[in-house]
Every structure is written in structure tokens, then in C-alpha cells.
């Protein structure tokens, strides 16, 4: 071949090589570029995406991504639940609930927990790769704004910093430390402003810009910026009138936080709600198109059936609502995670491949579960150093209460391989020669039908059977143990076989080990009627979606069987209630005989709120309160253990010591014994405020933490137990506080303090740093957590604890200029053992900026107001933008410190009004009742998206200098998008 021909052939060959491969290393013969691990990820993504047909790409947008055999690509499932252990796949290590992991204040421990969960997820994946996926839907970073939220157990804390530190640590553990490969791919839940279960798909969280930036986003951003998560899940609710599944924030904000391609997934049926319960778009075609445009990559719809999603997306493409480039973007996000998991690399490259099923529930994970369970326990009170108990003086222990000998899983728990209850843990710790007795302190009752005079009988045998009023006398087969879980809700356990009463069809049966299931059907209420008899009210929570019409009350059928069949108490069967065994009497008797009584009371995670089920209150159940009161009166050496998924309210003042624990998993009993007997000094700290009464709580639908007064940052009344509170067996002295006296806006606040363990007990102390800005243009938090360190101290040990805080972390979101701003101000620096137990203080000067007066001569979003009354945020358009709406007569918005220059003459506003007739808005100065400067007339428009411009002439005699400008709405139905004063 001639030289010219050789050169020409080489040029032709080069031109045939895809552009993205030019200059790349040579690869093995026959290896497709996307399978070549030596190529950059972007190159491999481009190659694989380019090889897929449009149909294949669309098929990947569903949670259950099908296999593509022609390219040797296996199926892939997004979403394995792993909140505090791998859930729903079989027996696995169950760690404390997420709120308990938050109460450890120990990111190092949480990373190890995450690593163990990631290992077990890999182990399950080896057992069944198609079903047990490596995309994990955890952690939950929604902050614990309201303790009544049903999913309180799933979050870490009410504070953004603590939440993000724990979430980042857990995510890093799940992912592993390899610089290239992921062990698993964690997904943060649920973006954003999600804290209400009641009608959750239709709740619109009205969230001002400051709260979004300073509170909501600050929980999500750090883990993504730290590359400790591979994506987020959109939440069920709407934010400011727009479903989160079509929020532009998914693409424009969330993706800006990470250097990686993020995979954004929908919650179960969440995308379907857009055209369903939310009615935001009329059809699934338009809804799915909008979601993909907004940034959603994976649809979690119709379980494993991707057909409806695929059909809707294809129709959107056919109608021009989507382009193939839109699909390519989503596919690239999805595939990037699969590449990082090592799916397309040769065997042996990913170091996590070798993890197998033997890692599940291994001895190391059991030990870690015990360590986590004891580290999350919080010592709330310890009068006269009643704890730790002395084993030699407590040979006879009574463990009393509804949780004394039970361990409960929650909805997102794994299946525990074993359960060490409080009674079992204490008995194991004390060993031979001691006596540990347990009584649940519940009444055993018998119900006798008034109509036929027969007692209700529950069948014996593990399978149970239908309850029937058919016995002449009340014996063990007629006994029903009554568990009071509060909220006027009971669970009934049949003495005949130890199984809980549930329903089968309409009949009542005793066949369940515990209250369980998505619809918890083991819930009842005994209602006393006027004649002193009782009716039985079925309270299974599927009555929200009636399975049997309006009937909720129990009747006795002609054959004597109990069934759900009456709509009202008046038409229900009546029963007499006889107490066969008094729970209180049994508890008191056990307490009097014991050296020490340990009362374990609290919540049941399936009854006392969870996903789709908020709480109405936080009160400890009245029946359990009565046991606490009776036992503390009977035995002055009583310790109360509060085991719950959320803060409780109640009176346990008679106890010598009070401990709180979350539902802490399989090792709860051993961990409790470790703490009670001083084998481990408690060191957990509360991750959220325990309010004194529910009356102090704002409305659950008020998401404005600043104005409503949520959390330790803004709640002024004294708490029952404050954020960060927790006692230990050591004693600590703080002294020698030093802080940078002056800090530049681009500088760092450096703080150090000497902490000394002045006791003879080795303990851990959680040293907490707070700041409090003294002056500001806006309402500032009472204080804000800026750092924390959990440290171990030997007896007498002194340590210098240092913090280094960026001055930019002291910034707040300035709505006048839509940016983060560090103000010039004095900052109080506080170091202590809780938000209320401050041991050392000083003041520093931060040299930032002084915010100038507002300039409303530039078009200003109405949502960027400084203060308001009554109004809510709505969507200005389907795609993006906020406005102010849902206005009632008398509502107002205010813009503070407005520079009116030489006398403003006109206010121009963009408004809409879907109601008939015109409306008025008064422009007042100084206050909502201040001088009237002008009146705005708002005409009717087609709907709230039909914006029009209206103007008001202003009184030049009033509009001079710097003034607070109020828009006071005299009529309901107005919406306002923006305004300008000229």
C-alpha cells in the first residue's frame, strides 16, 4: 500500500471514530466503550445513551428499569428502604430509629452505622439483585418542626446543622469511602417542607423565602455538597402552591448543590398525584412531561408495572411536550448512578462486590446496634444521683409498663433477628441470684353482651378465630388485656392465645402478634354510654378510606359473633365491662416487693402516628400516666423510662430518674441495662425541644418557623426539656472561653473553651456552640447551633475544645436583595451542655454590611415581603415563580425601610383575581392602620394565573423618606405577584 493510501485510510478510520473517543486510551478488543472502565464517566454515559433506542430510554424512567438484553444490561430497581437498617427484605440488623440516631450527636458513630447498613444492603443484593436494589431511600432529612408529625421517628433533629451533620455521616457510611465506586447509592428524603401527613398530597406548605433558605434547604444541601448522597426524593406535598414533583427547584437548586449527576426520584404515586389528587395538570401525559422538565428522573408509580408511565411519556413526546433531549437528560442521571455502583465494569473492580449475605446480622453489627442503642439514650432527670443503680442493692427489680417486656418495630424497620426487651436486658445484667419480675400494668377485662347476657370469648390456639359472645362465665378465654396508647385508642390482646384482636372482613378475630400493617386494624375505643354500659368502636385507620361504608361500631350477630356493623353508638351492641385483673394493682404489688422499680412507658410506633397518620397530641396515654403515678407512690426508688418516637408531655415528677429512648431496635434491653447500672454513662442529647404542653404548639400547617415560633431557635416559653439537653454520670466544668474579638465577613470565628470532668466517672460530654445576633434588620433566632463535639473524658481530665466557624455561616437570607448577607453586628457566643445550659459566654463583633433601605423602584416580588398577616404563598405560574394569595379581608403584607426618595407618586402591581367583582388594597405607611397613602383597585381576571397590571396614585405629602409600606387587603380573593413604587 502506498504512503498516500495508508495516510488516507488512517484519516477515514479516524473520522469514523466517535468524537468523544478521540484522544482516549486504547481499550480491549471488542469491549464497548461504555464498558471500558478506563474511559471517563461522561464518555461512557454518552456512549451508552447513544446506543439506546428511544423506547429503551423511556423504559428506564420507571422505578423498575427493565433489562436490555441486546446490550447485556440487567434490570435495576430504585428504592430499597434503609432508614435505620435494611427494611422489608428479611431479618436484618435493626438499629435505633432515626430520631434516636439523631440523639447520639455522634457523626462518627452514625457513619459506622451507615456503613453496616450499606454492607447488609450489598448482602441482600447478592441474594436477589433484581429485587434488592442498591439505590437506598435514606436518610430522611426533613426536620422535626412539629412533634405531632406522624413521621417524627424518621428524622434526625429540629435543627439544620445537627440534621445535616448526621445525614452526611449516614450517607457517607452507606456510600463507602472508595474514591470511584459506590457501595450503595443513598437518596435524601423528602424534598421539601414535608411535615404533615393529613391529606398530605394536597397540603401546600406556605414557606417564606427566609424559611426555605435558612431552614429547609440547609438540611438538604450539605450532604449533597459533601457528595454523601446521590439524589433526592420529591415529597408528597405542594410548596407555595406547586407540587414538588414539578418544582423547578429540582433542576435549578438541588442539582446546583452537587458536583455529581444526581438521580431525582418520585415518591410512591407522587407523580400520579399531580393529575390525581392535586389536579395540577389535567392528564398524566402533561403531568409526567412537566415532572421530567422540572428534573424528575424516576417515576415510582403502579408498583412494578411501568406500562402506564411509559405510555404517558411516549404520548408526551408525540404531542411535543417533551423532546428526546429531555429523556436523555433523565437517562444520563439514572445511568450515572449505575456506573458509579460498578454495574458496567469488569468483575473485581468494585471493592464492594465481595460483600455477601454473611454480613447480614453479623456479630460486629449486633455489637454496633448495642453501642448505638445506649449512645442514643438521654438521661432527662437524675435526682440525688439515683442512677447508676448499684447491682448489690438491686437484687429484686420490678420492670413495669406496657413496654416492659416488648420491643416494637416501626413501619420502616427491618425484621429483627432477635429482641432483647428491657426485662430481659436487666435480668441478663443482674444474672443468677437476682429476681426480675415484669408486669405490663394493663387491665384484663371481660365484656358481657347486654343483649344475650353472654361473655365475649376469644378462641385459643395460635391461629385464633372469631370473637363471639357465647360464654356464661368469665374465665381466661374471656380475658382481654387493654393496652392504652393514648389518643383515646386501645389495643386488645386475647388472654386465650396472647394474640391481638383485629378484623377479618367485618368480624373481630384474635390472630395478630402486634398492631401492624399499613392500615392498622388492631385499634379500638371503649365508649361509655349514658346508662353506664359500653360500646366498642373500631378505629382501624383504613376508616379514612371506608372499606365498609360508615359502619365503625361493633354489633353482636345472631350467631353471637362480634362484627363491625353499626354506624352510631346508639345502634351498636352494648356491653358491661368487668375487670378481672387490675393492671394498677398488679403494678403496685410488684413495685412494693422490689428494691427498684423500672417503669417503661411510651408509644407504639404503629398506633401513635407514622406515615400517613399524624398525632393529635403528644400526651403520654392516661392509662400509662396512672401506672407511673401509682408506682412512684408505691416505691420511692422508681426509675421511669420513656420509650417513644417523639417528645412526650406528661407528669413523671415522682420518679427518681427519667430516661428517654427511641424505639432502639433489637438491643434495646441490653443498652438500657448498660445505662441503668453504670456500665455506660448516658450521653445522648435531645435532638428536638420537648414542649411543656401541646397548647404551646402552632398550627401544624404553619410552616413559618420564624413567625410561628417553632423549635429552640424561635420558641420563647421555657421548655419541659430543651434542645440539646441530656445529663450524664460525670460532672463538667467549662472555663477559659476565648473567641476572635473581631470577625470579618469573609473570615472565621474561632472559639475555644476548656472543659474538665470534675468527677470520678468516665463520661462523654457533648460540647455545644451557639451564637445569637444582638441586632439585625430582621427577626433573628434566639440562638443557633454552630458546632458540637461529642468527646470522651477520663475522670479529672481537662481538654481544650475548639470550634472554627466560617463567618458566612452567620449569614441570613436577605429578601431585599435575594442573597445571603452577613450583617455588621455583635454576636453572642455561647458554649454549654444544651441550648439552655450555657456554661460560658462572650461577645464578638462581626464586620459585615449594613443593609440599605429597600428600593421598590425596581420590580419587587410580592413574596419578598418583610412581614405579613394571614396571607399564603401561591404559584405565580405552573412552571416557576411565587406569588401572594389566599387573601382574606384584613390580611396584609409589609415592606420595611423603603426609600421613598423625593415623594413617590405611584404604586404599580401585577395582580389577579378569580373572584367576581373588583377588590381594594390600601397602601398604608408605618403600620396596617397607619396613614393611607393610596388605594389599589384589583379587577377580576380569568383565573389566578391571568395576571394584569393595576396602579394606585400615592399621596406625595406622605411618601417621603424611609418608611414601612403596608398593603392592606380590604377584600378577599386578591393575588399579587409583584409591585413597583415610582
UniProtKB/TrEMBL annotation:
Residues 858-982 form the CBM6 domain. GO terms for biological process: arabinan catabolic process; xylan catabolic process. This is Exo-alpha-(1->6)-L-arabinopyranosidase. One of its GO terms (molecular function) is beta-glucosidase activity. Catalyzes the hydrolysis of a non-reducing terminal alpha-L-arabinopyranosidic linkage in ginsenoside Rb2 (alpha-L-arabinopyranosyl-(1->6)-alpha-D-glucopyranosyl) to release alpha-D-glucopyranosyl (Rd). It is not able to hydrolyze alpha-L-arabinofuranosyl-(1->6)-alpha-D-glucopyranosyl (Rc). CDD domains: beta-trefoil_FSCN_BglX-like (cd23343), CBM6_xylanase-like (cd04084). The lineage of its organism: Bacteria, Bacillati, Actinomycetota, Actinomycetes, Propionibacteriales. It comes from the Bacteria. InterPro entries: Actin-crosslinking, BXL, CBM6, Cellulose-bd_IV, Fn3-like, Galactose-bd-like_sf, GH, Glyco_hydro_3_C. Keywords: Hydrolase, Signal.
Amino acid at each position: 500500500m502506498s504512503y498516500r493510501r495508508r495516510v488516507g485510510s488512517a484519516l477515514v478510520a479516524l473520522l469514523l471514530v466517535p468524537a468523544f473517543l478521540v484522544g482516549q486510551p486504547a481499550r480491549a478488543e471488542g469491549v464497548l466503550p461504555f464498558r471500558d472502565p478506563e474511559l471517563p464517566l461522561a464518555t461512557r454515559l454518552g456512549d451508552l445513551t447513544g446506543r439506546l433506542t428511544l423506547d429503551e430510554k423511556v423504559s428506564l424512567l420507571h422505578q423498575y428499569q427493565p433489562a436490555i438484553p441486546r446490550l447485556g444490561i440487567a434490570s435495576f430497581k430504585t428504592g430499597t428502604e434503609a432508614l435505620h437498617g435494611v427494611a422489608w427484605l428479611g431479618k436484618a440488623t435493626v438499629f435505633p430509629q432515626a430520631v434516636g440516631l439523631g440523639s447520639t450527636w455522634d457523626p462518627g458513630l452514625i457513619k459506622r452505622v451507615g456503613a453496616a447498613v450499606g454492607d447488609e444492603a450489598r448482602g441482600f443484593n447478592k441474594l436477589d439483585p433484581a429485587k434488592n436494589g442498591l439505590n437506598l431511600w435514606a436518610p430522611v432529612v426533613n426536620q422535626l418542626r412539629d412533634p405531632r408529625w406522624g413521621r417524627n421517628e424518621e428524622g434526625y433533629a429540629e435543627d439544620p446543622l445537627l440534621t445535616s451533620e448526621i445525614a452526611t455521616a449516614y450517607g457517607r457510611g452507606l456510600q463507602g469511602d472508595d474514591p470511584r465506586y459506590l457501595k450503595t447509592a443513598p437518596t435524601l428524603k423528602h424534598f421539601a417542607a414535608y411535615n404533615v401527613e393529613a391529606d398530605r398530597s394536597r397540603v401546600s406548605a406556605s414557606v417564606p423565602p427566609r424559611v426555605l433558605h435558612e431552614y429547609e434547604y440547609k438540611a438538604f444541601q450539605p450532604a449533597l455538597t459533601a457528595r454523601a448522597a446521590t439524589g433526592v426524593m420529591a415529597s408528597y406535598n405542594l410548596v407555595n402552591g406547586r407540587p414538588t414533583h414539578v418544582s423547578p427547584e429540582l433542576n435549578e437548586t438541588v442539582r446546583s448543590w452537587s458536583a455529581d449527576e444526581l438521580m431525582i426520584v418520585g415518591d410512591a404515586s407522587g407523580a400520579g398525584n399531580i393529575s390525581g389528587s392535586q389536579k395540577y395538570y389535567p392528564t398524566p401525559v402533561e403531568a409526567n412531561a412537566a415532572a421530567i422538565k422540572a428534573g424528575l428522573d424516576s417515576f415510582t408509580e403502579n408498583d412494578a408495572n411501568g406500562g402506564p408511565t411509559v405510555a404517558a411519556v411516549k404520548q408526551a413526546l408525540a404531542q411535543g411536550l417533551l423532546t428526546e433531549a429531555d429523556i436523555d437528560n433523565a437517562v444520563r442521571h439514572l445511568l450515572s448512578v449505575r456506573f458509579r455502583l460498578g454495574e458496567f465494569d469488569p468483575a473485581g473492580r468494585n471493592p464492594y462486590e465481595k460483600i455477601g449475605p454473611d454480613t447480614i446480622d453479623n456479630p460486629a453489627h449486633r455489637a454496633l446496634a448495642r453501642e448505638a442503642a445506649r449512645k442514643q439514650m438521654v438521661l432527662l432527670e437524675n435526682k440525688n444521683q439515683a442512677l447508676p443503680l448499684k447491682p448489690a442493692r438491686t437484687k429484686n427489680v420490678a420492670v413495669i409498663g406496657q413496654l416492659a417486656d416488648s420491643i416494637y418495630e416501626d413501619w420502616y424497620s427491618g425484621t429483627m433477628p432477635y429482641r432483647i426487651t428491657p426485662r430481659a436486658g436487666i435480668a441478663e445484667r443482674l444474672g443468677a441470684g437476682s429476681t426480675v419480675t415484669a408486669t405490663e400494668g394493663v387491665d384484663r377485662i371481660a365484656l358481657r353482651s347486654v343483649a344475650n347476657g353472654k361473655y365475649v370469648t376469644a378462641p385459643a390456639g395460635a391461629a385464633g378465630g372469631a370473637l363471639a359472645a357465647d360464654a356464661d362465665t368469665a374465665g381466661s378465654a374471656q380475658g382481654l388485656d387493654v393496652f392504652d396508647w393514648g389518643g383515646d385508642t386501645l389495643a386488645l390482646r386475647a388472654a386465650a392465645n396472647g394474640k391481638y384482636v383485629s378484623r377479618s372482613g367485618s368480624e373481630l378475630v384474635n390472630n395478630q402478634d402486634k398492631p401492624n400493617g399499613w392500615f392498622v386494624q388492631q385499634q379500638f375505643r371503649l365508649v361509655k354510654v349514658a346508662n353506664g354500659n359500653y360500646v366498642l368502636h373500631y378505629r382501624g385507620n383504613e376508616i379514612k378510606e371506608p372499606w365498609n361504608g360508615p359502619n365503625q361500631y361493633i354489633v353482636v350477630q345472631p350467631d353471637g359473633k362480634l362484627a363491625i356493623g353499626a354506624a352510631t353508638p346508639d345502634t351498636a351492641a352494648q356491653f358491661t365491662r368487668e375487670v378481672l385483673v387490675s393492671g394498677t394493682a398488679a403494678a403496685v404489688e410488684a413495685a412494693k416487693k422490689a428494691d427498684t422499680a423500672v417503669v417503661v412507658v411510651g408509644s407504639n410506633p404503629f398506633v401513635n402516628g407514622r406515615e400517613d397518620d399524624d398525632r393529635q397530641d403528644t400526651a403520654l396515654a392516661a392509662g400509662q400516666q396512672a401506672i407511673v403515678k401509682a408506682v412512684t407512690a408505691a416505691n420511692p426508688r422508681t426509675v421511669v423510662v420513656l420509650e417513644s418516637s417523639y417528645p412526650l408531655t406528661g407528669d413523671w415528677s415522682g420518679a427518681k430518674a427519667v430516661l428517654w429512648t427511641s424505639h432502639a431496635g433489637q438491643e434495646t434491653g441490653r443498652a438500657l441495662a448498660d445505662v441503668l447500672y453504670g456500665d455506660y454513662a448516658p450521653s445522648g442529647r435531645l435532638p428536638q425541644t420537648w414542649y411543656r404542653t401541646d397548647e404551646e404548639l402552632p398550627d401544624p400547617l404553619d410552616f413559618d418557623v420564624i413567625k410561628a415560633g417553632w423549635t429552640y431557635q424561635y420558641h420563647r416559653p421555657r421548655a419541659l426539656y430543651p434542645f440539646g439537653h441530656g445529663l450524664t454520670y460525670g460532672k463538667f466544668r467549662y472555663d477559659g472561653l476565648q473567641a476572635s474579638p473581631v470577625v470579618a465577613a469573609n473570615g472565621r470565628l474561632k472559639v475555644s473553651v476548656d472543659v474538665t470532668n470534675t468527677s470520678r466517672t468516665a463520661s462523654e460530654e457533648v460540647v455545644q456552640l451557639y451564637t445569637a445576633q444582638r441586632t439585625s434588620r430582621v427577626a433573628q433566632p434566639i440562638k443557633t447551633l454552630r458546632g458540637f463535639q461529642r468527646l470522651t473524658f477520663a475522670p479529672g481530665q481537662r481538654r481544650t475544645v475548639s470550634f472554627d466557624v466560617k463567618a458566612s455561616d452567620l449569614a441570613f437570607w436577605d429578601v431585599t436583595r435575594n442573597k445571603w448577607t452577613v450583617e455588621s453586628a455583635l454576636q453572642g457566643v455561647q458554649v454549654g451542655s444544651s441550648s439552655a445550659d450555657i456554661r460560658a459566654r462572650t461577645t464578638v463583633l462581626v464586620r459585615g454590611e449594613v443593609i440599605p433601605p429597600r428600593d421598590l423602584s425596581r420590580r419587587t416580588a410580592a413574596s419578598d415581603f418583610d412581614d405579613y398577616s394571614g396571607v399564603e404563598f401561591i404559584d405565580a405560574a405552573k412552571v416557576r415563580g411565587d406569588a401572594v394569595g389566599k387573601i382574606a379581608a384584613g390580611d396584609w403584607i409589609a415592606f420595611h425601610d423603603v426609600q421613598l426618595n423625593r415623594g413617590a407618586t405611584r404604586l404599580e402591581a401585577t395582580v389577579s383575581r378569580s373572584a367576581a367583582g373588583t377588590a381594594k388594597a390600601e397602601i398604608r405607611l408605618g403600620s396596617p392602620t397607619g396613614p393611607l397613602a393610596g388605594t389599589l383597585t384589583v379587577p377580576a381576571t380569568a383565573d389566578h394565573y391571568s395576571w394584569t397590571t393595576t396602579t394606585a396614585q400615592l399621596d406625595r405629602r406622605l411618601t417621603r423618606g424611609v418608611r414601612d409600606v403596608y398593603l392592606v387587603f380590604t377584600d378577599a380573593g386578591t393575588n399579587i405577584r409583584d409591585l413597583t413604587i415610582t
